[in-house]
Write a structure and sequence with these properties.
The protein has one domain. It starts with a helix and ends with a helix. It is mainly alpha-helical. It is built from ten helices and no strands. It holds the Pfam family LysE. This is LysE family transporter.
């Protein structure tokens, strides 16, 4: 079981690692409101990764196929929300870099929004769909709780690193660079959201 946990941890870390829309959201919130806002967002994403790991390890083929079947509307909703969040980053004036600065928003909202976005993120859906047979070969079907724990810890580890590094840079960056990075994260989120909507509905 220890080997299975390590393998699931590596999978969770690897899936979280690419700097996609959820990573940009974590960076943007850390820049805007500090380490805890970014970490809460990351833990929401890690919880969603753990859920998909449970589905994969338990061999819920019917659930998996149903999730993939609903990929288009789920992705469309996620794309709209990403575009909304990106526009929010562009609209807000960058605060002075200090812990807890920026528009007031609780960690529960950060957690739940990142959780929902990760569940509807097409890249996450497709990544875990590819793991169903692999995790079965590793014996994950016999120990789904080990896979869930490993995937969650691996994903959470990456979000802890990303939020921590971003928070350190936040305290040390000149205000001009800080504002530029925050606007860049917002623009990238907006572009990601519009790209997801376009590829699923306009150019499908």
């Amino acid at each position: 079981m220890a080997l299975l946990f390590v393998e699931a941890l590596v999978i969770g870390f690897s899936i979280a690692l690419p700097l996609g829309p959820i990573g940009l959201l974590c960076v943007g919130r850390t820049l805007e409101r500090g380490f805890w806002a970014g970490l809460a967002s990351g833990l929401g994403a890690a919880t969603a990764d753990g859920f998909y790991g449970f589905v994969a390890a338990s061999g819920f083929a019917a659930v998996a196929s149903r999730l993939v079947a609903f990929e288009r509307p789920l992705a469309g909703g996620g794309g709209l929300f990403l575009a909304f969040l990106g526009a929010g980053f562009l609209r807000h004036r960058p605060p002075v870099p200090k812990e807890g600065g920026g528009p007031s928003q609780g960690p529960v909202v950060d957690f739940l929004s990142a959780f929902g976005l990760t569940l509807t993120n097409p890249m996450t859906l497709l990544s875990f769909a590819a793991l169903f047979s692999a995790l079965g070969a590793l014996g994950g079907g016999r120990f789904p709780q080990v896979v869930v724990g490993g995937v969650f810890v691996g994903s959470a580890l990456w979000w802890l690193i990303l939020a921590g590094v971003t928070a350190l840079l936040r305290e040390r960056l000149p205000q001009g660079i800080f504002a530029l990075l925050q606007k860049g994260a917002g623009l990238a989120l907006l572009a990601f959201g519009l790209w997801i909507i376009g590829t699923r509905f306009l150019f499908a």
